[in-house]
Amino acid sequence: MILILIIGLLFALGGIIFLAWLFVLFPPSTPKSKYRSQSFKQSPLLPKSTKSSDISSQNFVRQSPAPTQKTFLAKNFNKPVRQSSVATQKAFLSKNFKKQLLPSPARTPRVRLLKKLKKHLNNIEYASQVLLELRSRTQLAKLPVVIATLRRISPYVFEELVLTCCKKQGWQIQRNFRYTGDGGIDGRVLILGKLYVIQVKRYADYISPKHIKDFVCCIEGEGANGGFFVHTGITGQLSKQLIRRSDKIILVSGQKLVNFVLGKQFKIVGITIPIKTVNSYQETTNL
After folding, report:
1. Where are the domains of the chain?
2. Which CATH number fits the domain 109-286, given the four candidates 3.40.50.1820, 3.40.50.20, 3.40.1350.10, 3.40.630.30?
3. Parallel/antiparallel/unpaired status of strands 194-201 and 187-191
4. Which H helix or E strand runs over 92?
5. Where is this region: Disordered (predicted)?
6. Is the entire prediction scored with pTM above 0.90?
7. What is the distance between the alpha carbons of residues 205 and 151, in angstroms, rounded to a whole number?
8. CA 166, CA 260: separation in Å to the nearest integer?
9. Contact at 8 Å (CB) between 225 and 247?
10. 248: Cβ–Cβ under 8 A, 6 or more apart, which residues?
């Protein structure tokens, strides 16, 4: 009996294996869809018609159709957007970006050059007025009056005043175009064909010995025959020693400065300088 059951199970198992083998070798064919053969897309199903019983006050909002584009625009954009005109854009830029509209005329090289030149000429004119006032008082003006006047004016006007005095001595002068970055030289003069550099200091106290040392380097760097160190302060002992050691520095201070400002003949050791007429001088500007 058991043997018969085993044989039956083996036959059943063999039948199952045989059917599986047939499905592998001969798979069943599936018919192609008519929509694919005709390149036609099936339209989506239409929604079921809403029954009258389904429409109520509770679900009416949920079932109401979406607002159209026209309704949406009318609701959210009540006022149409207008394109900004050119005048509006310029007004906006001028209000918020004043510094970015156009380059300032004062920043152009030509305007800066004219502005510096105007300032330069104003200082020269004011220096001439101060010099005329000092010389119109008396040729015997006392030292404190002249020194106090020179200390009150600006350093730039004082530089121009000294160069104007050199010009009135009949020397050919060369003014600097700028007051800063001049390398420690405030002007140049030609005396009998020899070059002298000028440094002007408006002191109210003792002068600095370091300025004397720096001026010696400036004279050597320019290859000048000598230099005038003009100041309104007090010359200390160390500064005097430095000046004595150098045979190229000509100190102009105290009474010598007063005489120079008042137009008296300036004397340089070893050189006789005759005073010429005012029309005989030449003036240049170092650009």
Report:
1. 109-286
2. 3.40.1350.10
3. antiparallel
4. helix 86-96
5. 37-66
6. no
7. 11
8. 9
9. no
10. 216, 219, 224, 225, 226, 227
